[in-house]
Design a protein that fits this description.
Blueprint (H helix, E strand, L loop, with lengths): L1 H5 L24 E9 L4 E7 L4 E6 L5 E8 L5 H5 L3 H10 L7 E5 L4 E7 L2 E7 L15
Antiparallel strand pairs: 1-2, 2-3, 3-4, 4-7, 5-6, 6-7
Length: about 140
């Protein structure tokens, strides 16, 4: 389960990174469709559907940094790429959580919150940087 959560078995070459620049999906061969799905004064949300059927949503601040993202679909995206420097936090936490009967992983730290769950053909998750959330942003908007 941990390998599936880490995205080790699915080839997805996204270049987005939580806390970094948004995805350059236009050059990605796994791209099926990408569009700005919501535009507000304090952030924009881009929804991208990959050829695998997995949907990725990125929330980007006006200064061009991804402060939150979410994924849902039949294949797990490459979380090492999506989470960037925060991936190590996830893997460290995965090694300390008891797995029996638990459907996913959850990390809640001052610098990052990551929630990932799912099973074969039904993966989902979301991650955000609490200090970068715009005032009034509800993380449930990622769902």
């Amino acid at each position: 389960m941990v390998l599936a959560i880490m995205g080790a078995s699915v080839p997805w070459s996204a270049r987005a990174e939580l806390g970094g620049s948004p995805e350059a999906f236009a050059q990605d061969p796994m791209l099926a469709a990408s569009r700005i799905s919501e535009q507000r004064a304090d952030y924009s949300m881009r929804t991208t559907v990959l050829t695998t059927g997995t949907q990725v949503r990125e929330c980007t601040s006006p200064d061009g940094l991804v402060f939150a993202l979410a994924w849902q679909g039949p294949f797990m995206p490459d979380l090492k790429i999506l989470l960037g420097v925060h991936f190590d936090t996830l893997t460290t936490q995965a090694g300390t959580q008891a797995r029996a009967g638990r459907p996913g992983l959850a990390v809640s730290r001052p610098e990052v919150v990551i929630q990932s769950s799912g099973r074969m053909r039904a993966f989902q998750g979301r991650a955000w940087i609490p200090a970068r959330l715009p005032s009034g942003f509800d993380t449930h908007e990622l769902d």
